[in-house]
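Notebook p. 47: complex prediction with manganese (II) ion.
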Amino acid sequence: MLVVMKAQATREEIQAVCDHIEALGYRAHPLPGAQRTAIGITGNQGEVDRGNLEEMAGVAEVIRVSKPYKLVSRDVKEEDTVIRFAGTDATIGGAKVAMIAGPCSVESREQAFTIAEQVALAGAQFFRGGAYKPRTSPYAFQGLGEEALKIMAEIRERMGLRIVTEAIDHEALELVAEYADVIQIGARNMQNFSLLKAAGRKRKPVLLKRGLAATLDEFLMAAEYIMSEGNYEVILCERGVRTFADHTRNTLDLSIVPAVQRLSHLPILVDPSHGTGQRNKVLPMARGAIAVGADGLIVEVHHQPDKALSDGMQSILPEQFAQLMDECSQIAAVLHRRVPRGIHAEENAAVAVSAR
Ligand code: PEP
Ligand code: MN
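Predicted complex, C-alpha cells below:
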C-alpha cells in the first residue's frame, strides 16, 4: 500500500500520516520525490484499511502496490534516487556517472596508497578495497580486516576519496559501517537476509551486488530487504552471473541495467572486473556498460597485478584506468551524462592523453 501525498502537503501532514500508519502497527516509509512525497507501508500481512488514511489532510490518494517489491519500485518514487556524500560533490545515481576504483584487496598501506593516488589522479571519486574477502578457498588471502579499514580511512582523509568496502558478515558489518562511506554486500551474500536486514538498520549507503545466479526479481527483493529496515540509500551492482559460457569468469548481463531502470528508482552500477575475470575484457565491457546507461562502474585496479593477493588476472593497470575514464567520459557525453573528475581535474586530462 502506498499513500501519495499532495504536492502542497506540509511536513506536519506527512508526519501525521506516518504516525497514523505506525499506530496501526505498520511501518511507514516516507520517500520524498521532486513533485510529491509518497509513503510506503510495510509490515501489513493483508490489505490495510484505507478508509481513514484517504480522509487525512494532505493525502492525494491511497494506492495498492501489486508488485512484490514496493520501496525499490518506481511506483513509490518516480525520479532516480541520488545518493550524496557530505563534504564532497560526489554522488551516485542521477545524471552524473560515479567511478569507483581500487584493488580487490587492501594488501598493505603502501599498495593501497599507491593505487589510491593513481585512481584519484585519473579522476575517480570513490576508492574500493577489500578488507574482508569472501574467498573460494579457506587457504587463500582473507583480507587484513580492521587494519585495512584504517588504511582506507586515512586514504579518505588524505585524498578525499569516498571508501567502498565489503561486509561479509555481521561482525564485519559493524566495523565497515563505522569506517566506510559505502557498505558493500557481495554477490555471495545477496540472499543472506539477516545480513541485508542488519545493513538496512545502518545509516550508510549499501552497494548490493547481484547474486551469482540471481534473477531480476530476486535482486530487487534483496534490495527491498535493506529498504524495509529504513535504509533507502541502496545502490545495485551487476557483476556477472553464471552461465555455460567459459570464455569469461562470469557473463556480464548488461541488459539488466535498462531492466532495473524501468522498474526501480535505485542507481545501478556495473562491475566489469568480476563480470569478465580478464584484464583485456574490462575496458570494452566498461565502455559497453556506460553506453547502456549504467550509473557508474566499480573497477579493480592494481599497479602490480601479477603480485596481487586476489583477482590479479582481472585487475587493470592504473594507466588503463585513466584510459577507461577518458573513453567512458566521452561515451557518457553522448547520453548527456557527465563523469565528474574528482579533485584532480587538471591532471586528469594529461594522464588520460598520455595513456593512449
Ligand atoms: C569484490 O568486489 O571483490 C567481490 C568479491 O565481488 P563479488 O561479491 O561480486 O564477487
Ligand atoms: Mn575481487
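Notes: The first helix runs from residue 11 to 23. The chain has two domains: 2-63, 83-355.
Next step: compare against the earlier run before touching the bench.
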